[in-house]
């Protein structure tokens, strides 16, 4: 019985792999699972006494690891994609959208990429932090509504690529989760670098706050073979002596960070695609949310030019400039996310990463 | 092209569904995604000012929801399984085991059950809590090693169903994540009850600390059609006036909780299977970890008898009594977890839930 099944499976799988994993219908998953990567460990002084288990003496504590859930489709392409969330977010960024459509996890599985969704150290399911923190329920969602460029609360932007019903808005707000320890660029990039050591060469997708530590991860680990950065935040690394002047905005001041030239050069050796959405003004405005993105986009352009000046391969697409309108800070889950995925897939094909 | 593919797919899928999803080979997933369920919301007094986005005035905060990632296999059985973690844990309990084998997520997908993995409110990816908390990195892992009955640190129990290499131990410790708000039986059972309202009738698997709020969830929501409780912790609910005397142990005192008879009776209307593993003494011992489980198993037996006395259908299996040895507090991920899954599947079949 088992071997008959096996023969049948082998025949069917080769046929099915060709037609499954398209825009509809079932996903054929060769392998899926989860693991922790990286992190550190401390041991309390003293000797553990099993009769006093609540005292830390002699006990250990592991933390600051990344957590990943992965799926490898049948007939997978050579390089998987590691998808890294931004500030206040977790793996959900790439899962079902707030209005219930498929996110980049499913969309890229259907395109035969292995997909690793991570929670960075000190976030979500990677919650054990080596540093204490206090989490307070401070109301902040109108800040995020604006900062994520959905609109100017309570109005939505005209033509914004977001469903505007109450249930979608609720799912969107509930897709946030707090830091369980201080955000630390070194710690989170160490965690994701350790993940690449485990899985081998791959493509890194970053979102927002993940952008900055994403550059650091590629500097630390040459298994990062390409980066697609969705709306990277304020942390861009330049070579020593080449950091541009800070760019003030109505929200904050965007400052480049300096790294040794040798480290910077790692970023010239891989193809990089940067995408920014709509409703980012070119001129200063007195609205913090909009103006912060004006400053970030400006710094991102400086950065593209700096990397390319040293022989790099950075392409920055400001979506409205190529006729794609209405995207928020979450192009991977906006209503036109399949169009965005097409754009990214085209880039990966062009760079022979597919 | 598309319709040809469609025809081919339909033919192949019906064939493949019969032979895929077995103990090896690819999983055929009809649908997968994630969502938040339940929770509450507050609004800070005042009016939101987009020019002062860091002040909470007039802003909202959503929290205390559950988060779920689900997968529905092709050719799914009628009732899905909702898998609920215990203390200090998250969805990982049911995913890849610490030594890299498949957990109950994959094992039950292969058996054609839909699987919902949850992070309960204030844990992991459901991190937004309505109540403030402070998270401290206090070394405690030797406590857990003993409490989870892997051994008496640093020794493993003879014949324990756990791989004993350092990498497995590290993955096991890194599968913990803290509460991001105070643990609250009402809040977490409300979240999971809201999840059942979204998904409809299903089977609930609980682990450890999830056991107590699991009973409450079944009381709150008749869409819970059965419960399989793996090593439920100290919270058992009895009808008013029928709470047994507290059971002291070297770790703590196990106390039943009282609920109105009408609520209690909900637990007599569904089949319930309770499993406990090995290395639980029948007589009091002065080791807190072992003794705490002696007291819990004893209370679980009182509870089984109380529910069955009122016409219920509770079966309690202490695994060594049926010749299954070496199980820890995590039977769903122990080395013999396929054998445990067989036992559970047999129960579901017997109760016509499959």
From TrEMBL, chains A, B:
GO MF entry, a single one: hydrolase activity
Keywords, alphabetical: Hydrolase, Signal
InterPro entries documented for this protein: AB_hydrolase_1, AB_hydrolase_fold, Carboxylesterase_BioH
Provenance organism: Pseudomonas jessenii
Span of the signal peptide: 1-23
Residue intervals of the AB hydrolase-1 domain: 81-297
Domain of life, source organism: Bacteria
Name used for this protein in its record: Alpha/beta fold hydrolase
